Amino acid sequence: MPPQTVCEEIPAVDILSLDTVRTNCRFPYTDADEKTRVQLIPFPTATCNPDHKQRLERQEDSLARALEQAEAAQEMSARISARFARLAGRSERRQRQMAHLSLLEASLALLEEGNDILS
Question: Rounded CA gap, 36 and 87, in Å?
Fold first, then answer.
């Protein structure tokens, strides 16, 4: 039986930069011995597909945008947390002021009552 060609996804590694890329390249495959010949392909030529570099660039752009969005969301979250902390501080001060005002009102009521008793 003559060897058949199948499209098989294999990893190709650039030893210098340790970048890994998956490729869809055709390699001879023989049914008789069921072995696949695999070769290590340098990263710059690691694809049979001519638009592979464009796909990688688009993926890189998408990842860069996602990173920018994540950083913006993190910054927004920090601002929101700081705002809530300020509001909580104001609320706590307001509660202390209200408690102090209640004590002053109670003291005033006692003074008026004591004044009425003395007169």
Answer: 67
Are the C-beta atoms of 5 and 14 separated by less than 8 Å? no
Could you tell me the CA-to-CA distances from 65 to 61, 70, 76, 78, 81 in Å, in that order? 6, 9, 16, 20, 24
Q: pLDDT digits over 89-104, tens only?
A: 999 989 999 999 999 9
Query: CB within 8 A of 60, min separation 6: which ones?
Result: none
59-112 pLDDT, tens digit per residue, is 999 999 999 999 999 999 999 999 999 999 999 989 999 999 999 999 999 999
The answer to whether 30 and 3 are in contact (CB under 8 A) is yes
Express as a percent the part of the chain with pLDDT over 90: 36
pTM of this prediction? 0.41
CA gap 24, 46 in Å, rounded:
9
